[in-house]
Amino acid sequence: MLVRPKPGILDPQGQAVESSLRHLGFDVGEARVGRLVDVDVPTDDRAEALAQLERMCEQLLTNPLIESYEIELERP
Amino acid sequence: MLVRPKPGILDPQGQAVESSLRHLGFDVGEARVGRLVDVDVPTDDRAEALAQLERMCEQLLTNPLIESYEIELERP
């Protein structure tokens, strides 16, 4: 699961990364920092896996007021 | 950029997520928590963008002893 601060939500970590990259001489636009959560789900059923991961995001892994999430499925 | 703790490296955040998900009744295997860093790079040249993002990972965004990274390019 990829969890990102929603557009418009203050992201101090992203600002710090942006400013550090500029100090190092990189030409960058905006930087945003989020979380990456990899979870093994013991099912071969993609729809079932997706439904479970969605529930995990909603119940525990994200704050829907300030974060959005994206789910990417991978086979082991 | 997707930054993950390398296999074998202790990941207390991942352990906490794993244990919380089980407490909520989810049937999950291992969970690992990493960082997601989105950076706008003002170039249309994919090879150039990739080279720059790699340098950012190596100079600032990751600790190569304990983390691995993956770069995904996206057009705005």
Shape of chain A: elongated
The CATH superfamily of chain A turns out to be Phosphoribosylformylglycinamidine synthase subunit PurS
Distance between the termini of chain A: 15 Å
| CATH level-3 fold name of chain A | Mth169, Chain: A
Q: In terms of structural class, how would the helical and strand content of chain A be classed?
A: alpha+beta
Low-confidence stretches of chain A: none
State the helical fraction of chain A: 25-40%
Give the total of beta strands of chain A: 3
Describe, in plain words, how this protein is organized in 3D.
- The structure is a homodimer of 76-residue chains.
- The first copy, chain A, has a single domain (2-70), classed as Phosphoribosylformylglycinamidine synthase subunit PurS (Mth169, Chain: A, 2-Layer Sandwich), CATH 3.30.1280.
- A 3-stranded antiparallel β-sheet of chain A has the order 2-1-3, with helices on one face.
- The longest helix of chain A has 16 residues, at 46-61.
- The first copy, chain A, contains 2 helices and 3 strands; from the N terminus they run βαβαβ.
- Chain A has helices at residues 12-23, 46-61, and strands at 2-5, 31-39, 67-70.
- By secondary structure, chain A is of the alpha+beta class.
- The two termini of chain A are 15 Å apart.
- The model of chain A has no long low-confidence stretch (mean pLDDT 96).
- Chain A is elongated, with a radius of gyration of 16 Å.
- The interface between A and B is medium-sized, with 32 and 32 residues.
- Strand 2 (31-39) of chain A pairs antiparallel with strand 2 (31-39) of chain B, so a sheet runs across the interface.
